[in-house]
Design brief:
mainly alpha
């Protein structure tokens, strides 16, 4: 029974991964086109300024 459940789980994980590949591919194409056009996709990183405590 345990091996059947593990096999079923692996099949579900595999099928979800296969289903998501075209979605991820399309997202990467859109993201690359936006970057090519100069869009800033992510906010600039804010660096924490360290100040010593007296």
């Amino acid at each position: 029974m345990t091996s059947a459940l593990l096999l079923a789980r692996d099949c579900i994980i595999y099928s979800v991964n296969v289903w998501l590949v075209p979605v991820e591919f399309a997202f990467n194409i859109i993201e690359a086109e936006l970057v090519r056009r100069g869009a800033q996709l992510y906010p600039a990183e804010e660096r924490a300024v360290w100040t010593p405590h007296d």
